[in-house]
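Q: Predict the bound structure with adenosine-5'-triphosphate.
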Amino acid sequence: MSPDARSRLVPEFALEACSLKKTYPGSKKREPKQALKGVDLKVRTGSIFGLLGPNGAGKSTFINIFAGLVKKTEGEAKIWGMNIDTHPRQARAAIGIVPQEINMDVFFTPYETLELIAGFYGVPKSERRSDEILAAVGLTDKRNAYVRGLSGGMKRRLLVAKALVHNPPILVLDEPTAGVDIELRRQMWEYVVELNKRGTTIVLTTHYLEEAQELCDDIAIIDQGQVVACEPKDELLKRVDRKTLVIEPVVPLSEVPAGFEDFDAEIRDGALAITYRFGHASVAHMIERFNASGARIQDLRTEEANLEDVFLSLTYNRANAG
Ligand SMILES: Nc1ncnc2c1ncn2[C@@H]1O[C@H](COP(=O)(O)OP(=O)(O)OP(=O)(O)O)[C@@H](O)[C@H]1O
Ligand SMILES: [Mg+2]
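A: Predicted complex:
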């Protein structure tokens, strides 16, 4: 295949949103709600993309527009290079969505559920992977159980399995690990990473910022229907240009020692924590001062900013600014 033909098959962006807006209509009792206020986002093909934001930010609305579950008010959306208005069927065939809300037919077994969906998408019997998918989400031993008898976490895993049946190049997961225990969360993410290595583009929302920090290549933060940041994770983390030096003394301290009046210093569990901007303070100088105070050092460590700091600084400041 020529490189040209290949690049036509694999678009640069798996998902594209251009000035996407959504207003939910009001009713007698409720004002209309503008959930998306003109969102521009591009998800690079092959990436793991994290969509983060506080409750009610508009994440599910955004995802559900791509899923065909919510009708956009304005703007343009493309899946795998295909416009959802002009090529709805082809566009939807390229995406698998794991919705936030659990809704499923409880009268079938997990295996039957997957086979039904495969039939619905026209996946030939020889290409079906129902058992492989059930194994990947840890439901092999529930293969023939009734769905109504599954626990909440198991139902959520079955939702992931359902989204994978037609082997889509894009998998979108809206809070897939809410209510799933730690061990299974780890297992599910391992499988998601494995799918990504095999070429699937992943878009996920999660309130577990540590997971997003570990997994995602690119991160968008959305707040009150607007994108407040969208960049590679490493760039985003650099935004909070802050480090903390924690000095553990041999004898726990009860107050900040003399000599640290000019520093942003506080006592945490008997240790001295000094926060500074990278390149604006010398650690050697801090240690000298500490020694000069007469206290003795037991241990030292530094803490870097994490995604939670970035998230809070971007969303919390906005909330307080009005
Ligand atoms: N069907 C609906 N009718 C009216 N308003 C809605 C509807 N669905 C969502 N909203 C409102 O739109 C806004 C965005 O909701 P959305 O579910 O997209 O947020 P979210 O970022 O997914 O939040 P969460 O983290 O809680 O899942 C909220 O103010 C919500 O109340
Ligand atoms: Mg949501």
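A: The chain is about 35% helix and 30% strand.
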